[in-house]
Design a protein that fits this description.
Elements lengths: L3 H8 L10 H13 L4 H13 L4 H13 L9 E5 L12 H7 L5 E6 L11 H7 L6 E5 H4 L1 H4 L2 H7 L5 H4 L10 E5 L5 H9 L5 E5 L12 E7 L2 E7 L17 H9 L3 H17 L6 H8 L1
Parallel strand pairs: 1-2, 1-4, 2-3, 4-5
Antiparallel strand pairs: 5-6, 6-7
């Protein structure tokens, strides 16, 4: 289908806009990844799509096409962590510490790329290129597993805004993982994320994590989906004697790496708590309390 059809569907205003079908979304994404649309057309569509806004059916279709362009490397007993590709600005990442605590239990999958709009934070790529990684932590760079999506980075930077791609890129299932956890910032997105991603995994979870990441720093909710059944729970670090003061100052890469190399007792306990969450998501512990005691 001519790409103008998709621009017209999302860019003619409230009365003229319409949602794309699953098949149309698959084809739209083919145009983006194969670059059979001009850069100006791609940017116009992404902006209109965001403003419309996107539907779960459209996300599913786009993700289906991305799957066909993704080179996978299956890793057994693995849990995929879905981090935003626009990075973290204020607090360090925990996943290298968390992975080291789970060496005997679980493999962790992290994906990344060059920084994407619009937060301007430190990326998983920055961390994985400079921090020591335990043997059970696998980092996949999108330049290699999905070069066609990586190649859209320049267009996205010129646009300078979040788009629907920020959502679908979080969980590419590059390792064919059985389990997955990603972060969610706004509660209305919980149902949408469950509709998009849950059926792709045996066990799928959403965490009200720090800066939209799948990392808990303060009291938040966990939604765990198993075979369509969703259980919601509240996790409070203070229950485990953890009193972390979140930073609102911009963190540098050097500081973030230093905190991973020489973590404070509080940060280390946070990594233990997040490890406990992952054991529950993967079905390797019946409760956070049980898993936390095991890792302590």
């Amino acid at each position: 289908m001519d790409f103008h059809t998709y621009i017209h569907a999302v860019g003619t205003g409230h009365k003229g806009n319409r949602d794309l079908s699953f098949e149309e979304s698959c084809n739209m994404m083919q145009h983006l990844l194969k670059r059979t649309a001009y850069p100006e057309q791609i940017a116009a569509f992404l902006l209109g799509w965001r403003m419309k806004p996107e539907t779960t059916e459209e996300f599913r279709g786009a993700l289906h096409t991305c799957d066909a362009h993704t080179h996978t490397t299956p890793i057994a007993n693995s849990l995929e962590l879905g981090y935003p590709f626009d990075g973290k600005r204020h607090n360090p990442y925990l996943f290298p510490l968390t992975a080291s605590l789970l060496k005997e239990h679980l493999n962790l999958i992290v994906t990344g790329d060059v920084l994407q709009p619009a937060k301007g934070g430190i990326t998983t790529q920055d961390i994985c290129r400079h921090a020591p990684l335990s043997s059970n932590l696998y980092y996949f760079d999108r330049k290699h597993y999905c070069p066609a999506l990586h190649a859209l980075s320049d267009i996205r930077h010129r646009l300078g805004l979040r788009t629907g791609l920020n959502t679908i890129e979080k969980l590419p299932k590059v390792a064919q993982s059985e389990y997955a956890l990603t972060g969610v910032f706004h509660k209305p997105y919980v149902a949408k994320y469950l509709d998009i991603f849950a059926s792709r995994y045996q066990r799928f979870a959403l965490l009200q994590g720090n800066e939209g990441t799948p990392e808990l720093f303060s009291k938040g909710r966990l939604w765990l989906s198993v075979k369509g059944d969703v259980q919601e729970s509240i996790i409070d670090p203070k229950r485990y004697g953890i009193h972390y003061q979140r930073s609102w100052e911009r963190i540098s890469l050097q500081t973030s790496l230093q905190q991973l190399t020489d973590p404070s007792e509080t940060l280390y306990k946070l990594a233990q708590l997040n490890g406990a969450i992952l054991l529950v998501v993967a079905g390797k512990a019946a409760s956070i309390d049980e898993a936390y005691a095991q890792l302590s």
